[in-house]
Design goal:
alpha+beta; five-stranded mixed β-sheet; 36% helix; single chain
Length: 506
Amino acid sequence: MSKEIIINVNPFETRVALIENGSLTEIFIERAGAQSVTSNIYRGRVRKVLPGMQVAFVDIGLERAGFLHLKDIARAKVQKLTDFVNSVQSQDEDIENELNSLADPPVFPSDGTNIEDILTEGQELMVQVIKNPLGTKGSRISAYVALPGRYLVLMPMVKQTGISRRIDSREERDRLREIVEECGHSDRGYIIRTAAENAGREDIKRDIDFLEKIWSRIREKNEKASAPFLLHRDLDIVLRSIRDLYQPDVRRIIIDSEEDYQRCVNFMDTYMGDFRPEIELYNSPEPIFDLFGIEIEIERALDTKVWLKSGGYIVIDRTEALTAIDVNTGKYVGGISQEDTVLQTNLEAVKEIVYQLPLRNVGGLIIIDFIDMEKEESKEKVFYSLENALRQDRSRTKILRVSELGLVEMTRKRTRANLNRILCRPCPNCEGRGFMKSPRTVCYEIFREIRRRLAKRPDIKKVVMVASPEISAAAVEEETGFLEKLETDYNCKVSVRSDPAFPDEH
């Protein structure tokens, strides 16, 4: 399987796309002023302890207090975690999933310890963000610290070593464990990641030394800092994508920013040793996401209805509680029998559903309404097809068999905000029952379109942007810096005109 990582850098947002066999499979978006805080480490102050829920709210300096559960304190105190480490189900996905899969579920103290016995209001402690804020919820935090590297994850509070189960060879597992035991610290814990397979001893030792230096700096800061205080910030989305997404089957990495290209080259020279992917600087006038057809795929991922090649379609509806997926035959009439037509549509829908879930980053409870099948044999085929396809998903999933009503219940680990949440906002015209693109999203689309046209026509000296009053106001008041940069980059005048007749998305 051939993979490529495409990175599009703009002053207002950075987008990273993972391409498999020419198709967009995952998209990561980070906007200016809204960077991810996952894996960041803070010195926080306990704001409130809730014994009835066994949780505490901790001020870590963000807009909303972090959410700390008893189990995320208890596991930090446990030293012998043999069963805990042996239960690793790592799929080597986003690093936070890899860590959570190791630590889920942790064991509660056997002495009946309650959270009020451990924490008091005003107390200061070191915590790490394990899940970004979502909607109205604050960050999920843990007193258990883990530092991700290229080949390893350092666990300063655990004295055990775990190895990703995706490394099948017993000889390779033994080799890696021996290297870590010789080069690592006896009072540390480590997760050996899938990327370490076939890595050299010097590469692994360099990773261990790098992580130890980070941990040493964190401890020094923690001794001097007063809460709330940021002790350690994880890599930005560009370097994080290289660290976490790169695997041996990634053919190349393409980036359209010279500055970030050089940062990536330096990062790989320092931390990736001989396991370096091919990296290219893209400098063509045509936007990089246009060249690879990624913009079209992103638009398609925002649609509720997705057409299948046969003429059938699926409808994906997201609600607060769950995501419902409905399968329909649509224009497909088949050619043998009704049962065969239904089966073929359901099997085709399985492939599209498994493709759409990571692309849209659908998480939580998912209900799939397949077209009713009469034969148990057909139901089994659909179930096993879905089960096998989901094994390639980097997020953990759990699936139940097809019910008598033709429904499949499944869960998928929620790792980051749904694509709709990032690019859209609740529609004010329907009181939140639907979605429309936010003013920022529309502004950025217009800026990209202006860049497209100016790249093709360098002789243009003036551009007039016409949009609805809300979009025009957002462009002038909130995004004026990017308008000025457009004028500087292309030596032309960009003016904005408001037209109430324009819809907000135009």
